[in-house]
Amino acid sequence: MHNACNEAIPNYNKSIRNKSTGKSLWNKNISEASKITKEKHALWKNGGAPKDKNNPLKSQLTTAKRLLRKAHRQAYASQREILANQIMTASSSDNKLFHKLLRTQRRLKRTRTFFICGPDYFYELSNPDYKQDFDYEKYELSSLQNTIIEKIEKGKAKIEPIREEEIHDAVKRLKNGKSSDIDGISVEHYKNAQTELLPLILHILYTVIEQLDIPQMLKGGIMTLVLKKNKDRQNPANYRGITVTKIFTKILQSVLKSRIDIKIHQIQNQLQRGFTEAIPMIFAAFLASEAIIQSNEDDQEVLLLTLDAEKGFLTNWNMRFYSTRSTTMALTVTRGSYSVICIEMSIRIKWDDLVSDKISVNQGIQQGAKLSTSLYKCYNNAILDSVTESG
Fold it and tell me: Which of 164, 242, 168 shows the shortest CA–CA distance to 202?
């Protein structure tokens, strides 16, 4: 497939190198770390460039790179500390330092301007627009239907208590090496202290599921903005938000997801390709390619419709609109636990050394967080059922 793309698309998969600007820091520690990194890279390359992380050559190279980045960070931190000390001890007649600070502030002007405009853009993404083309009738009907379903489900048998095996599996599924949450807690803390924390986690999760109440402090997160490739830095729409939620909340979502997926698997349409284990999206691409080839051989016109579901799902998805039959069947397994999680969620945007005010999240994939992929399959299942039934 890559060979075909190279033939058909100019500059396909062409690497782009960005030229660095300004002077970088360099000291004895960086020089030594850089020398060691080059030596380890040469050994790794001469050893066949193994990709296995457990390979000694690969492991030594990774460690050397980390030490080099650490030396760079320490150098920049030392530079900032020196500048701060100069400011604290400078006299009012130090014009050289004054103009240095002035130039620094001018360089930061674009960053500050974006930080003022950025939160407004993400607030609009996270909240429905009730003024423009909003279907109030559908909203009221969906709200009424969900309220009735919630009352019916609450009157049924109690939800199955969470077991220790479920918590153990949920913690095991969490990925190592990720950023710490807003409290400074990382995945490794839970994994290394799992024996001591397991009874406490089990008690808290059981209370949350039983009482359908989750503390507001567990519903927040920090969003870091990552610029999309080759995009304008001044346009907030060109940034992808990566949200770091509480690790404890991820454990709860993982437990609920494992239960929901069992129900979804029973009702999922066979045409669903994305977000499904052992059924990658490349299968759908293969079927589309075969259909196009066959239509060309038969000299027939083929109409191929595609949907960028991510953008529509991001800006239009709201829990109130999840009123399809398939969704109702899947969500009964949690007896309203999901709705407790998604209500009154919030994020704060981190930009350089600044953090924005709290932004309420009332729509978008962050509202579903770890459950978003499973719930999207419910959302899309009704469409696929209609296609299947229509023949």
Answer: 164
